[in-house]
Amino acid sequence: MTATVTSTSAQPAPTGITFPEGFVWGAATASYQIEGAAREDGRGPSIWDTFSRTPGKVYAGHTGDVACDHYHRYADDVAMMADLGLGAYRFSVAWPRIQPDGTGPVNVRGLDFYDRLTDELLAKGIDPVVTLYHWDLPQTLEDRGGWTVRETAEAFAEYAQIVHRRLGDRVATWTTLNEPWCSAYLGYGNGIHAPGVQNPAAALAAVHHLNLAHGLAASALRSAGARNISITLNPCEVSPLDPANPADVEAARVIDGVANRIFFDPLLTGRYPADVLEHIARITDLSFIRDGDEALIHQPLDVLGINFYTPSYVSAKAGAPGAGDYPGSQGIAFRPPVGPVTDMNWQIEPASLTRLLTRIHRDYPGTALMITENGAAYPEVPAGNGEVQDLRRIEYIDAHLRACHDALADGVDLRGYFAWSLMDNFEWAEGYKKRFGIVHVDYTTQERVLKDSAKWYREVIRRNGLE
Ligand code: FCB
To answer: Least buried of 39, 240, 313, 319, by fewest C-beta within 10 Å?
Structure first.
């Protein structure tokens, strides 16, 4: 058979773009994913220690016990960040290092670590962007109900103040929570993340208590003098598979409600949307929402963090079982990825990021945005010459930066971009199998090697744009 040769149609070469002056260039990590030293200096157990030890929960039984050993190698890691020219570094504080039991006595040695890290960053001219909760809940709090109970939100506000008292004089931005969607729906909905509960009503209670935790902590931080207060969400652009089909449009409204507006609206407008409350009232009696809670959640935000990886397409389908991470989604089908995907099997669609940012800008005017995570898993490891040729990661980040630039051109107030992740790390239920780093980590030797994407990103930062 002869193949028909068609001329490779002349795609216009992408043109160079420049980002606004002062645009923040960073990279992100999270405590349990990189620190290791799981039992050192008084750290208590977290739900991820428990979960990763539960057979069958994490790929090949991997745990964060050692991870990237960042706890001991932080100074070298910060030197590497400086070499890349990062203007900011987003890391998270492990609550069980600070309060091993979640409440009560403070473990000073835990605070000491973040103090050293903060000073090391500042010495290299890198702004510390702190996330107070990136999923490592102290196990003791989970034993008392975790995010399904109000006390956890109250404990979080106390913990936030403890960290602020120690680092408040030096930290650039305070992010309360990372992706409460994941904490609630993966943790208590479909159970693929710690603590591994599968209960839609519990997941919805967790949503509310996470929102409340943010509000209580943000208010306490503000009173204590914190200037730049934020939360990071992972909103998803949810589109109807067939925009001309009203049933698909309705399915998209439902999923957008439980996935996105259940966070956006109380945080940014002080009200849960009526249609979302009506939808979830089929699953829970909502008794966990007390009078005045929405006002507590609605605190002024200096910047809203957005983590973006992939879009979502849904359709109405009688008999579809729905998905545990979207309570009440029975009768709705989620389209499997189409076209190019990353190693996570996540569809690559940069234009979806532009549409998402533009939508937030339109629906919640006046909100300053920051991409606090974006990146891709690909398996490349050092080749014979020691180089890591991760061209697909470069293409992914390049395309998403262009999407950010398009959003800026549409008037979106986008302040910066953090690549996920600075280095390969413990990718939750996927263990060390999935590599998101722009820096390769050899988990046997702990050697770090800049991938081609890291060298490329260094140039992007230097140029404040793309060629
Ligand atoms: C996000 C998490 C981050 C990382 C990336 C791939 O949901 O915030 O820790 O696992 O996904």
So the answer is: 319
For the chain, the distance separating the N- and C-terminal CA atoms, rounded to the nearest angstrom, is 41
Report the predicted TM-score, pTM, of the whole model to 2 decimal places. 0.96
Residue 1 is predicted with a pLDDT of 35
Distance of CA 53 to the CA centre of its chain: 23
The residues, any chain, with a CB within 8 Å of residue 367's CB and separated by 6 or more, are 268, 301, 304, 360, 361, 413
Q: Which CA distances in Å does 389 have to 13, 251, 385, 443?
A: 22, 41, 10, 19
- Rounded Cα distance between 279 and 272, Å, is 11
The pLDDT of residue 300 is above 90: yes
DSSP helix/strand/coil, 132: strand
Atom number in ligand 1 closest to CA 375:
6
Which residues are known catalytic residues?
179, 373
Distance (Å, whole) CA 190 – CA 349? 25
Over residues 42-71, the pLDDT tens digits come to: 999 999 999 999 999 999 999 999 999 999
Name the average pLDDT for the chain. 97
Rg of the Cα atoms in the chain? 22
Nearest to 368 by CA among 414, 403, 408, 405: 414
Tally the C-alpha atoms within 13 A of residue 212's C-alpha that lie toward its C-beta.
21
Indicate if the pLDDT at residue 182 is higher than 70: yes
For residue 436, report the distance from its CA to the centre of ligand 1, in Å.
Answer: 9
Kindly tell me if the per-residue pLDDT of 106 is higher than 70: yes
Give ligand 1 pocket residues (Cβ under 6 A).
30, 33, 178-179, 182, 234, 307, 373, 420, 427-428, 436
Q: What is the pLDDT of residue 2?
A: 36
Residue 304 is classified by DSSP as E
- Burial class of residue 464 (count of CB atoms within 10 Å of its CB; 0-12, 13-18, 19+): middle
Tokens 């058979």: give the residue.
1
Other Cβ atoms less than 10 A from the Cβ of 25: the count is 20
Mutate to test the pocket of ligand 1, among 133, 307, 309 (most ligand atoms within 8 A of CB): 307
